[in-house]
């Protein structure tokens, strides 16, 4: 391989079925030793949330970072679930606010509050929070990130970056903070519309949406993240994990070079 790999790469897997997501994780980790762990998102339209897969993964010795959406969780429920997972060996967790949902009455628990509450109870647990470069102004999102850090947050998982220029803007503002930089393939008109309409992404003018270009961009991003001494996570949205990893790494025996 002719590119550097960050010291830590997480693989995001959507838990559409419990046995299936466990098998997918095992296959990816066995085939690609450069993958450090699996993170499990909570998606409103997916019935299986993060807790059940996290239990399954921890019982099978797979490093996992479950996401918890604050919008539909009370602090007592959150502490109860995290306590159970810590008992199984959980080492890190990701808190996100969650998009508004007309069918769900908001719990009133904010990410900043959740970070502080859980950190007090579990000081050795690494708590990550979301960082979204697109949802509001640069200043507002940066101030929000700093409030999370003040509350005890250990680092961030970002929405995917689609240009190295924007990635650098954020890394410059967060020196000394662990940032797991998101990388996701966008290879269809439907996927492009999702990112543009739902997540307010603005793609670079000459952004290429074909499979080969997406893999090349992922390699360039990974190499840049490695040079910045930061971390990454891959989101193989609408594509099989092993297929996407194969496109990116080209060699299933890819190992750390950063």
* N-to-C series of helices and strands: EHEHEHEHEHEHEHHEH
Query: How many strand units?
Result: 8
Structural class call reads alpha/beta
Fold-level CATH name: TIM Barrel
Fraction of residues in helix: 40-55%
Name of the level-1 CATH class: Alpha Beta
Share in β-strands = 15-25%
Number of domains: 1
**Total count of helical runs of at least 4 residues:** 9
Principal-axis shape: globular
Strand order of the largest sheet: 1-2-3-4-5-6-7-8
Alpha carbon gap, first and last residue = 12 Å
C-alpha-based Rg, rounded: 17 Å
Provide the CATH architecture: Alpha-Beta Barrel
Largest sheet: 8 strands, parallel, barrel
Taking pLDDT < 50 over at least 5 consecutive residues as the criterion, the unreliable ranges are: 252-258
Write up this protein:
The protein is globular and about 45 Å long. 38% of the residues are buried. The protein contains nine helices and eight strands. The protein has a single domain, classed as TIM Barrel, CATH 3.20.20. The two termini are 12 Å apart. It has 258 residues and is an alpha/beta fold. The C terminus is likely disordered. An eight-stranded parallel barrel has the order 1-2-3-4-5-6-7-8, surrounded by four helices. 41% of the residues lie in helices and 16% in strands.
């Amino acid at each position: 391989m002719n590119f550097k790999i960050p010291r830590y790469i997480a693989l995001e897997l959507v838990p559409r079925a419990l046995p299936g997501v466990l098998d997918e994780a095992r296959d990816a980790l066995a085939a690609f030793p450069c993958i450090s762990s699996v993170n499990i998102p909570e998606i409103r339209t997916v019935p299986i949330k993060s807790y059940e897969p996290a239990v399954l993964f921890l019982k099978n010795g797979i490093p996992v970072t479950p996401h918890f959406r604050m919008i539909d969780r009370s602090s007592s429920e959150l502490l109860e679930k995290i306590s159970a997972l810590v008992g199984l060996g959980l080492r890190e967790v990701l808190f996100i606010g969650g998009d508004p949902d007309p069918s769900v009455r908001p719990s009133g628990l904010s990410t900043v509050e959740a970070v502080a509450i859980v950190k007090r109870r579990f000081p050795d647990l690494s708590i990550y929070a979301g960082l979204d470069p697109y949802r509001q102004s640069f200043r507002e999102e940066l101030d929000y990130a700093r409030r999370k850090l003040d509350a005890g947050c250990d680092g961030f998982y970002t929405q995917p970056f689609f240009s190295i220029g924007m990635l650098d803007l954020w890394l410059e503002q967060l020196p000394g903070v662990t940032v797991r930089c998101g990388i996701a393939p966008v290879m269809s008109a439907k996927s492009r519309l999702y990112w543009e309409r739902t997540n307010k992404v603005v793609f670079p003018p000459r952004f290429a949406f074909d499979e080969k270009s997406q893999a090349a961009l992922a390699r360039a991003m990974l190499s840049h993240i490695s040079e910045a001494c930061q971390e990454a996570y891959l989101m193989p949205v609408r594509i099989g994990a092993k297929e996407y990893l194969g496109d990116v790494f080209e060699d299933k025996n890819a190992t750390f070079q950063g």
